[in-house]
Amino acid sequence: MISGENMIYLENSQIRVGVDLDFGGVITYLSAANNNLNQINRHDRGRCCQGSFYSGPDPYDSCTFMGKPWPWNPIGSGDRYGHSSRVLSHSKTSTSLNIKTKPLQWACDNVECECEFEKKIWLDEDAVRVQFTLHNHRSDKNDYGKKDQELPALYTIGKLGTLTCYTGNKPWTNGGLTVWEHPGFNPWTPGKIQCSEKWAAFYDEETQFGLGLYSKNNINFLTGFSGTKNKGGPYDSETGYIASLGELDIKADETYTYEFALVLGYIKTIRTWVYEQNNH
After folding, report:
1. pLDDT beneath 70, residues of the chain
2. Cα separation of 230 and 158, whole Å?
3. Counting CB atoms within 10 angstroms of each CB, which of 43, 99, 104, 234 has the fewest?
4. Nearest alpha-carbon partner for 204 in 229, 185, 186
5. What value, to the nearest 5°, has the Cα angle with vertex 38 and ends 37 and 42?
6. Nearest residue to 123 (alpha-carbon basis) of 16, 202, 33
7. According to the 3-state scheme, what is the secondary structure of 239-262?
8. How many degrees, rounded to 5, is the angle at CA 79 between CA 75 and CA 84?
9. Is 118 within 8 Å of 100 (Cβ atoms)?
10. Residue 70 dihedral angles phi and psi, to the nearest 5°
11. SS3 for 144?
12. Contacts of residue 272, Cβ cutoff 8 Å, sequence gap at least 6
């Protein structure tokens, strides 16, 4: 535990998910119900599992990240300077969590977005389901066109060092999965991939246990790994990265909603859960 954690949890007989109100209410914790082995990396406010949107201008408010100009980019947890996004409201029932947040611009120093993030979280056997909504009301009414959006961005622990998904042209037939080995010398690869069954996962090669991201309306993903493969926990720098990638024009007064699921378990379990969704 790091100082300042302010967690709320939701659990069933199989999994436990947690949001940190001191990290803007984003998902910072996911484990099996029978242990406390968190599979989400929360090394800094750019990690975790959270919404992230992009638009112009570029740069936004003269903000920079890693020495480069950075565009309009609100994220749920806070900014690169360590400030936390404000949680405007939160509630919990026996079956769901509801969080509303005033996000910060990632590359700026404590600059709030003219928008709100709202999410509902509930559990479905081995999966965490999330309905995520952006409420945009920018004073800048310019249309900056389509940008790649992270819907959402998921950072897994480095112990889950192997990436997989189905990339063939016969989805839903239990065809062989593609496996990417992290090359070590070239971080954040393989980059953009297409996963025909709308899910991708990082897993532990020895146990086959992992964490997958499912996006029911999208086959495009942005992926990568940073650090030394097969080591590292929630607070370490090593991490895997999966984002469901959507190309959207986020308008100044737009309300945009999407859904995704985090599926925890062995790769066969993750794939079975996703197949059940496809058959609904």
Report:
1. 1-4, 182-186, 280
2. 6
3. 43
4. 229
5. 150
6. 16
7. EEEEEEEEEECCCCCCEEEEEEEE
8. 90
9. yes
10. -130, 140
11. coil
12. none
CA geometry: angle 29, 54, 74, nearest 5 deg? 50
Which amino acid, 267? I
Reduced to 3 states (helix: H, G, I; strand: E, B; else coil), residue 23 is helix
In this structure, what token pair is assigned to residue 2?
A: 């790091």
What's the rounded Cα separation, in Å, for the pair 100 and 87? 6
Are the CB atoms for 132 and 258 separated by under 8 Å?
yes
Helices (H), ranges, the chain: 267-278
Terminus-to-terminus CA distance in the chain, angstroms? 39
Contact predicate 16/30, CB 8 Å: yes
Q: What pLDDT is attached to residue 182?
A: 66
* Tokens describing residue 126: 């081995």
Give me the chain's average pLDDT, please. 95
User: Which two three-digit tokens encode residue 58?
Assistant: 């570029």
**Tens digit of each residue's pLDDT (9 = 90 or more) over 183-209:** 555 678 899 999 999 999 999 999 999
**Beta carbons within 10 angstroms of residue 202's beta carbon:** 28
Helix (H) or strand (E) holding 30: strand 26-32
- Give me 108's structure tokens: 């700026």
Can you read off the two tokens belonging to residue 152? 């959402």
Which amino acid belongs to residue 123? L
